[in-house]
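Deliverable D5.2: sample structural annotation.
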Amino acid sequence: MNKRMLLALALSAAVIGLTQFLFPPPKPAPKTATAAVATPSLAPGAAAAVLPSAVGATPATISATAGAVTIDTAALTGTRTTVRISSLGAAPVSVRLNGYKPLAKGSTETAVELVRPSESLLQYALIVKEPGGNRVIDLSTVPFTTTRTDDRTVTYAGVSGAANVQITYVFQPDSFLVRVGGRVTGLTSPAFLRVTLPSGLHSSEADSTEDQQHLAVAMKPVKGGNTESVAFNDLDPGETSLKEGPFVWVASKSKFFITGLLTSSGDRPFDEVTVIGGPKTGKVESRVQATALQGLQDGTFRFELYAGPQEWRRLVALGRDFENSNPYGGWLQGFVQPFATMVMKTLLWMHESLNLNYGWVLVIFGIAVRLLLWPFNQRAMRTSMKMQVLQPELQAVQEKYKSDPQKMQAEVMKVYKEHDMSPFSAISGCLPMLLPMPVFITLFFVFQNTIEFRGVPFLYLADISQKDPLYVIPLLMAVSAFALSWIGLRGTPPNPQAKIMGYMFPAMMFAFFFSAAAGLNLYYMVQNIAALPQQWLIANERLKSKAKPVVYSEKGTPAKPKKA
C-alpha cells in the first residue's frame, strides 16, 4: 500500500508539474464592471434569488399597451436572478440568471436568459369537464391586476367569464424556487389547471446544436420508479406523447438549465403530461408543446416553480428525486444512476477539499481509481498469464483424447488441478478488469450536463465541458491506449486478432470521443497513462517467465522457490 501511495503522489506531481510547464493556463481577462456576474460557480446554500430588499433595489414595473389593455411587467431583481411576470396571463415571461455568463460566440448579454424571445416561460389555462366535452379557458389572454403584499409576494387577480382567478407568487430568497398557488371560483367541478411549459429553453452555449440535442421533458411518477423522459428528437412534427400520472414533478430542460414544476406531499400531483412535436427548423428538433394537468382541490392549485441551473447539490436539496431529472444511462438508468450519484459526490468533495480546478480534480480522480483497482487488475493479469501457460497443455489433452470425451474431461480437470486452477478461473480472473467500467460509463453520461464543469478552463482549454478545439487530448488518449495495448502484447503468444485489435481499439476510441467533452477525454487519457506502469511490470514478468517458469500461489502472486 505504501508503494502504491508513493506511486500515486509521484504520478500526480509529475502530471501536474509537466502539464503546467507545457500548457500554462490562459491569462485571466481584465476585470470589468460586470465581472462579478460572470462567475459560474455557486456555493451550496448561497443566495440564488435575492429579493429587492436584500440588494437595496425596488420592484420595477414596465407598462405597455396592447389595444385597450395595459400590460404591467413586474420585475424582481437580485444579485443572482431577475424574474419578470406579465399581468397579461399572470405568467413569468423572463428569467435571467446573473451568475451564469452566456458562452455563445458574439453574445453581448451579461447573463443567461432562460426564456426564448417573444415567448413566455409558462402559460395557464383552465379545463372544465362538461357533458358536451371539455371547455378550455385560456388565461394567457386575460388581463390581471397586481397586488404586492411585500417584496417577496405578488398576487394577480383576473376574470374570464364566470371564472374568478387569483394567482400568487412567493419568491424564495435562498434558491431559484418560486412558490405558486391559486384559487378559482365560479366553475363547476371537475376542473383542472393546465400549465404549458416553455417550448424549449433559450440556448446560451457555445455549441447551440449540441445544447439542443439535450432538450427534453422529464417527469417523476409519484409511486416510485425511474424518471421518465421524452426527448425532443424522439418526436416527429405533430406527433403526440401522452404520459399518464400521477407525477410528483414535471420539467423542461436543456443541457445545463431546467424549468421544473414540483408538487409537495400535501399538493395534488400532476395527472398527466402531453408533449407534441413542433416544426423541425434545423438539424435537431428544437420545439415542442408540453403541458401538465393538475386537478383543482376545492378550487385551489399549488406547486413550486424552479427555474435555474442543474446544479447537482441544489437539486438534491429540493428533494423528490429532482436531481434525477437527467435520467442517466437510458435503459441502463437503474445501473448508472447510483454510480452517477457516487461520482458526483466524490468529484464535488475533491474540488472543495483540495481547492483545485475541476481539471486537476479529474486528473487526480483518474489516478486514484487506477491505484484502487491495482490489486484487482494485478490478479486478473496474472490469471491471464497462467491461462497462456495452460493453453498448450489443454490443447494437447483435447487432441489426445478427442475420441474419448469422458477421458478427455477427466484429464482436462487434472491439468487444471495441477496448475491450481479451474475452468472458471479465466472468467473470474477477467471480472476485476471490468471494475472501471461503471465509472467509465457513468462519466460519459455525467459530462453531458454537469453544470459544475460549464465554462471551467484548464491548461489551454477554455471550457472542459466542450470538445477540445485542437484535438490534442483526444489524440493523447488514443496514443496512450495504443501504448497500453502494445505493452500488453509483449511476451504473449502470436495472435493476429489481438494484434489487429491493438491497432483498431485506439482508433475506435479516438473516432468515438474526439468530439466529446475535453474533460471526459482528459479522464480517459489519465486512466491509460496511470495503467502503463502496471502493464509494463506484468509484461516484464511474462518475458521472464518464458526463460524461467513462474510458480503462482493460490492468491495469484509469484510463490517463492522452495529451498533444496
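Annotation notes: The two ends are 32 Å apart (CA to CA). The first strand starts at residue 60 and ends at 66.
The annotation will be released with the project's public dataset once the embargo ends.
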